[in-house]
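Q: I'm writing a short explainer about TIGR03364 family FAD-dependent oxidoreductase for a general audience and would like to include a description of its predicted shape. Could you first generate the structure from this sequence?
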Amino acid sequence: MDNRYDVAIVGGGILGTFHAYHALELGLKVCLLEKDAYPQGATTQNFGQVVPSGMNSKWQKLGRESLRIYTDIQSQFDISIRQNGTVYLASNEEEEQLLVELRAINNNNDYASRMLTKGECLDRYPGLRKEYVKAGLFFPDEVTVEPRTMIHRLQEYLTTQKGLTMKTHFTAVSCERNGDWTRVRSTGNEAVLAKKIIICNGSDFKNLYPEVFAQSDLEVSKLQMMQTKPQKNYSLKGSILTGWSIRRYEAFHECPSFAQVKQNESADSLQKKWGVHILFKQAMDGSVILGDSHQYADVDKIEDLGYDLDMDIDHFMLEEAKKIMELPTYEIHRRWYGMYSQCKTKDIFQTTIDEHIHIVTGIGGKGMTGSAGFSKKNIATIFNKQRINL
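A: Of course. Here's the predicted structure. Afterward I'll give you a sentence or two in plain language.
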């Protein structure tokens, strides 16, 4: 019975871990299975911004629930949450109009935001170039996390205080129904039995269900980011999103002026070619993370994206960042890229193999912001909010 659970979750990233969290909150016995010694995928290779403001109305609700969950956990256990808010910086009148329209939408949704004048932006964000900024829109409730730290602290919290069983170096290679139980077996021939299985391991689910994977509409996005050396005597609060973010994020698609703004853009710019929008966030060590880019390939052609950093992209982002923010140093300490899977035609990939095996993956760039809220809803749906007795 020690190796039998109400639910086993395959994949220890942010989506799988929050499914585990909410299953534990229902009083279920939970096992989280991770193929590596610790999560190393998209969950740890991102900016660490929790920005419901950037999502469409449906996902903003889930993102706002994520904010409540993050802050509740942080009040009990330090998972690196910092509430310094998010700002969108407009560089021209078109972008400022989009900010005004987004603020109106958020007022209707009872989500707090306020417009910042050019002077207020310059006062609040040191180094911001006056020739760049025209206005800002500030969301005070939004938070940042340290992506290379948060997931480990969250899992420590769940294992030490919530009763989660976590098995690492567990690469799942089979998932078979056997009577009342479903058995997940690893490459090391270790087996876990559970009433229900939830598979949240990105595109790796192809190893378990290659036919389902082949019929999916998953694609992979490659994002390049970099991190400066620690900035001396310099503080930058919260998440800084700029004009290209305004032109990219889903939330702005709902603004009346958005279609016309996009129509006015150059179709052959490097920004469009590489999917660049400039972001800034200061890490706890004082360094500044900046980026990022987006390149796409079908999930079965991931090699088309290459396994190296494209230095032309990095150089382009760096030069554009310097036009927006004057930092004490732009000396780069670290460069990396992240890879995440997403759906071409849906918000997230979900399918049920039978009533006991659920695949949930392809959340894309919504992972850090949306996973906590989405997982709460999904766990309630899967278990119908009822305790399953062993």
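A: For your explainer, you could say: The first helix runs from residue 14 to 25.
Q: Perfect, that's easy to follow.
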